[in-house]
Model the fold of this input.
Amino acid sequence: MSLPLKSPAELASRLDLAAGDRLLLIDPPESLRELAESMRIGKEETRTVEGDRIRKVKDSFDGILLWREDRVGSQSLLEAAAKRLGPGGFVWIIVAMRKVTGVAVPGAHRLGLEDLVRAFPPGGWVHDRETRVSAWHIAHRFVRKI
Done:
């Protein structure tokens, strides 16, 4: 799936795509994967994996970018992604916005910020910022409290 991204050069900066040596992309659309790879030339590793294959990934990463629209199966995927985050790293979760049309998943079944906050308990995680990714998607960033 390819998706028109909102201001790709600025988006790469806002999502910290060049930060850290190791970045894990989970279920990204082709346009976002290509953007991440172009921003990370010379970095140690940029790995792309499908969500149902996350358990095969055993390494830890400085950053994780996860694309998820549907609530179904999201809790286990978010937990698995969080386990693969290295110290001082970040997790970006990109979700479809609630009140937009044009997304395949109905609004009632979309993953939202309230679902993400429950998945990343406040005792260990903090939602520190968000950014618009496309006309239909928004990214939420979570980091571990130190």
